[in-house]
Specification:
Layout lengths: L3 H19 L6 H8 L3 H7 L3 H12 L11 H30 L3 H27 L9 H19 L5 H12 L3
Length: 180
């Protein structure tokens, strides 16, 4: 039998692939079994149901690695920008994002928002650290800053159909706007 971690990774990887390519409605135990070749019984041993499987896949996807210890302001801001959009960019994709906005699959939307709250908490910690050490103004609202980053990302994709040099341009804007 394959290594337990490898099987778990294949299950979540397949679930994420289905989510990105066909939307949340395509992510079922049966579809993951068919796509991955992993027996349904093996999937059910790990995940009680579709909801548990989706939660595991989304949680794996949206758990940011903290910035390096003693990273400078520039590195922490780059980390913030990359991780603020990671849930969409490297995660659910714009198809999943569209489903979230239209609430096409309420179960998925609820799970995504739940997991997103945990991911954003890690981002807020970094914003609070930047405020505490004087790297950015103390009156910055962390949630609004994160929303602005994600909103700029989505707007760029809507405006141009791609993201291109978005991160560099946004970083330049943030660096100027957030000077103390």
């Amino acid at each position: 039998m394959a290594d337990s971690d490898e099987v778990g990774s294949r299950i979540t990887g397949t679930a994420l692939h289905l989510l990105r390519s066909a939307g949340p409605g395509a992510v079922t135990i049966q579809a993951v079994q068919a796509q991955s070749g992993i027996a349904k019984t093996t999937i059910y041993r790990r995940h009680q149901d579709r909801r548990a499987m989706l939660r595991a896949a989304l949680s794996e996807l949206m758990t940011p690695t903290p910035p390096p210890p003693r990273a400078d302001t520039t590195d922490r801001l780059h980390w913030l920008v990359r991780n603020a959009v990671a849930a969409v960019d490297g995660g659910i994709g714009f198809g999943g994002f569209a489903s979230l906005l239209t609430d096409e699959d309420p179960e998925f939307s609820g799970l995504f928002r739940e997991v997103l709250g945990n991911q954003r908490a890690a981002l807020v910690v970094v914003v609070d650290e930047l405020k505490a050490d004087g790297s950015i103004p103390a009156d910055i609202d962390p949630e609004a800053l994160i929303d602005a980053i994600v909103g700029a990302y989505v707007a760029e994709r809507a405006r141009t159909g791609r993201v291109g040099d978005w991160e560099g341009r946004l970083f330049d804007l943030l660096s100027t706007a957030l000077r103390s």
